Amino acid sequence: MSGTWITTRAWLLMLPLLIVMVAVIGWPLADTVHLSFTDAKLVGTSGSYVGFDNYVRLLSGNAFGRTLFTTTFFAVVVVTTEMLLGVLAALLLNQQFHGRTLLRALLILPWALPTVVNATLWRLIYNPEYGALNAALTQLGILSDYRSWLGEPGTALTALIVADCWKNFPLVALIALAALQAVPRDVVAASYVDGANAFSRFRFVTLPYLAGPLLVALVLRTIEAFKVFDIIWVMTRGGPANSTRTMSILVYQEAFSFQRAGSGASLALIVTLIITVLAVAYGTIVKKLAGSAA
Amino acid sequence: MNRFFGRTLLSATLLTAPLSLPAFAETQINALFMAQAAYSEADVRAMTEAFTKANPDIKVNLEFVPYEGLHDKTVLAQGAGNAYDVVLFDVIWPAEFAANNVLVDVSSKITDEMKAGVLPGAWTTVKYDEKFYGMPWILDTKYLFYNKEILEKAGIANPPKTWEELAADAKIIKDKGILASPIAWSWAQAEAAICDYTTLVSAFGGDFLKDGKPAFQSGGGLDALKYMVDSYTSGITNPNSKEFLEEDVRKVFENGDAAFALNWTYMYNMANDPKDSKVAGKIGVVPAPGVAGKSEASAVNGSMGLGITTASKHQDEAWKYIVFMTSQATQNAYAKLSLPIWASSYEDPAVTEGQEELIAAAKTGLAVMYPRPTTPKYQEISVALQQAIQEALLGQSSPEDALKTAAENSGL
Questions:
Q1: Are residues B263 and B343 located together in one domain of the fold?
Q2: Option in A42, A148, A153 nearest B240 (CB)
Q3: B215 and B67 in one domain?
C-alpha cells in the first residue's frame, strides 16, 4: 500500500519535468526521425516519404566515410591530449606554492572564453601573413619562412586540435583538481612512509580516487569533441579541400546550405546514434568500475 | 489627503498609459545586411538614419552578418518563423529563393522610371524567370588592382591586358626580388574562390552549364582552373591565397605585399585611405584582364539586391525602405565603396570625382559581367567547385579529374 503510494507520488512529482522533457527533447527527436524518411526541403515543401533512400545515399556516398574518419581522429586526439594535460595541470596546481590561487583562477580563463572568440583568436595566431606563431617560429630560427597553417591539409587539422585542446583541457583539470582534494592525506602520508616513489604514489594512491571523476570528464569531452562545429566553422569552414570537415559541418551543409532537411535529419540521427553508443559504453564501464570498487 | 491625491494620480497614470501608447506606435521592420565588402556598416546605418528621418513612423532594425552567413541566416530565419522583412541577397540566390518561395515577386512595384534609369546589367541580379525579386543595390565585379610603385620598380610600363601578361609581369617582379609572390587572390574554401574562378572562366570563354548539364569540366572552365594551378605552383601567386577571403586580400595589398590583387570595388577607396593603408595614392585599377583571341576583359557578376521576404508582415514599409536605399540620390551620396546602379550616375561629377580610374574600369568591367550558373541547385555546384579548386591547387588531383568529380557531385 505505502509502497505503491511512494511510487505513484514519485511519478506525480516527476510528471511536470517529464512533460517538459517530452516537449523539448522527445517531440523534436520524433520529428527528426520522421523528417529523415522524407525528401523535405528546409523551406517550402514538407516532402514525401522516401523510405531509407536518404540513409542509403549518405552511407554510400564518399563524403560520409572520410568525414567520419576526420571526426573520429579529431575526437580521439583531442580527448587524449586534454585528459593528459588536464591531469598533469591538476597535479601541479595541487602542490603547495606561492601564486597557486592566481594560477588556479587563470586556468579557467580559456575554458570560460566563448568558442567563437577562442577560434578568432587562434585564427589570428595562425595568420599566414602576420600571425604570432609564424613570427615566433621564424624569430627563433625554427622556421625559415612564414607558413599557411590553416591552408595546408597536413597542418590544418593539427592546428584546430591545438586550439581546441587549449580551450578545453582546463575543464578536465578542474574536475581532476576537485577530485584531488578528496584524496585522504593520511593515505598519502602512509605511502611516503612506505617509501613509494612519485610514480607509484600517483599510480596506486592518487589515480584510484581520480578514476571516477575522470571518466565523467572523458564522457563529456568525447561527446563534445565528436559533435564539434563552431571552432572549425570559424577557423576553416571545413577546408582546405574538406580536410577539416567534421560530421556536424556535413550535417549543416546538407540541411542548411543545400536546404535538404530530410537527408540532413538522417545524417544528424546517424551522428546521434554514434554518440549514444559511446555514451552507453562509457556508462557501462563506469557502472562496472563502481561495482568493483564496492 | 496627500495620499488620496497620490493614489488618484497613480491610477490615472496607469489608466491612461495604455491609451497613450498608440500615439507612439510605429512599424518596425527588420533588415539583414552583410558586414563585408561594398557599403560599410557605417554607410548602411547613415542611409537608414536618413530614411527614418524622412519616415518617422517606420523603425528599421539593422543586423549585419559576414557574407558567408548571409544565405543560411536568411533561409534559417524564414524556416524558423522569425524572418526578416528586408534581406540583402546575392546574384546567385534568386533561382533558389524563387523555387523555395523565400522572396516576394515585386515585378508590379517596379516603375517604368526605374526600368529606364537602372543599368540593364544590374537587373540581371534580381531577375529569375522573367520575374523581379527585388531591387539591385550593389553593382559589383572584381577588378584587377595593382601597386603602381612596384610596377615602376620592376620597369613595367602598363598594367597587363591579358592573363598571360599578368603572369609574365608577376614573374618579372618575382625574379627581380621585389616580392616573393606578387599576386593575391581569395581562394579559401568559400564563395570567394568561385568568384575568382568565374572571372577566369569568362576570360577563357568557358561555360558553367550547357542545356542544364555541367560544362565547366572542359574548354574554358578547365583552362581557368589550369591557369590558377599554374599561377599557384609557379610561385607567382601568394600561396596563402588558398586560405584568403576578400578582406585578407585587402590587408595584404594595403600592406604593400602584393603587386596585383583581384578584389571588389570597395578596395579602391579603402586602400587609398592613408589611415589604414601603406599604399595609399599608389593604387591602380583596371578591368580584370582578357585572353588573347577570346576576350578583351573579364568580370564576374558579383552584384547584390535588396528583397522582401514572403514572411514579412510589413511589405509596403519594406518596399518603401528598399526604394529609398536604392534611389539614385542615396547611391550617389555613398558612391565610394560601391558604385550606383543608375546609368546617369556615371556622368555625375559628384560620383566620379576622385575615382576617375575606378569609374573607367567599371565602364568596361560592368559591361562584360559574367554570371555564375543560374539554378536552384547553385549551392551544391558551388560547394563541389570549391572543393575541386582546392584539391587541384593542393595537387591532390589534376584539374581535369577535380572538375570531373565536381560535375558528378554538382547534383545536376
A1: no
A2: A148
A3: no
Inter-chain CB proximity B240 and A256 less than 8 Å: no
Residues in chain A closer than 8 A to B251 (CB atoms): 129
Task: Please check the confidence at residue A3 and state whether its pLDDT lies above 80.
Answer: no
Is residue B277 located within the same domain as residue B253? yes
What's the pLDDT score for residue B138? 93
Specify the 3-state DSSP secondary structure of B90.
strand
Span B250-304, pLDDT tens digits: 999 999 999 999 999 999 999 999 998 999 999 999 999 999 999 999 999 999 9
C-beta atoms of B75 and A242 within 8 A: no
Cis? peptide before A240, omega within 30° of 0: yes
Closest Cβ–Cβ partner in B100, B189, B386 for A43: B100
Same domain, B45 and B181: no
Among candidates B72, B257, B391 on the partner chain, residue whose Cβ is nearest the Cβ of A241 = B391
Q: What is the ipTM of this complex?
A: 0.81
For chain B, give the percent of residues with pLDDT over 70: 94
B94 Cβ neighbours under 8 A, 6+ residues apart: B103, B125, B126, B127, B128, B133, B134, B305, B374
Nearest to A259 among B75, B243, B251 (CB): B75
Numbers of helices and strands, H then E, in chain A: 14, 0
Using CB atoms, pick whichever of A236, A242, A259 lies closest to residue B100. A259
Q: Cβ neighbours of residue B320 under 8 Å, at least 6 residues apart?
A: B55, B58
**CATH number, domain containing residue B100:** 3.40.190.10
* Interface check B101 vs A, CB under 8 A: yes
How far apart (Å, rounded) are the C-alpha atoms in residues B261 and B145? 5
* Closest residue of chain B to A234, computed from CA coordinates: B68
Mean pLDDT of B108-133: 91
Q: Which of residues 156-185 of B touch A (CB under 8 A)?
A: none
CB contact under 8 A, B257 and A129: yes
- Residue A156 grid coordinates: 590544418
Q: Residue B83 falls within a domain, yes or no?
A: yes
Query: Inter-chain contact A129–B255, Cβ cutoff 8 Å?
Result: yes
Predicted confidence at residue A278, as pLDDT, reads: 87
Both B194 and B310 in a single domain? Answer: no
DSSP A38: B
Task: Establish if A237 touches chain B: CB-CB under 8 angstroms.
Answer: yes
Among the listed residues B360, B37, B381, the one whose alpha carbon sits nearest the alpha carbon of residue B197: B381
Q: Say yes or no: B362 and B392 in one domain.
A: no
Domain range for residue B328? 27-140+302-367
| Residues B220 and B287 reside in one and the same domain | yes
Whether residue A242 lies within 8 A of chain B, CB to CB, comes out as yes
Decide if A153 touches B, using CB distance below 8 A: yes
Nearest chain A alpha carbon to B240: A148
Report the C-alpha gap between A116 and A109 in whole angstroms. Answer: 14
Total number of domains constituting chain B: 2
Task: Answer yes or no: is pLDDT of A76 > 50.
Answer: yes
Query: Which band of pLDDT confidence, cut at 50, 70 and 90, is reported for residue A208?
Result: confident
Mutate to test the interface with B, among A43, A125, A230 (most CBs of B within 10 A): A43
Question: A48-293, what's its fold?
Answer: MetI-like fold (1.10.3720)
> Counting every residue, how long is chain A?
294
Same domain? B392 vs B243: yes
DSSP, collapsed to helix, strand or coil, labels residue B322 as: helix
Question: Which chain A residues in 169-208 lie under 8 Å from chain B, judged by CB atoms?
Answer: none
- The ranges assigned to domains in chain A are 48-293
In this predicted model, what pLDDT tens digit does every residue of A152-199 receive, in sequence order? 988 999 999 999 999 999 999 999 999 998 888 888 888 888 888 888
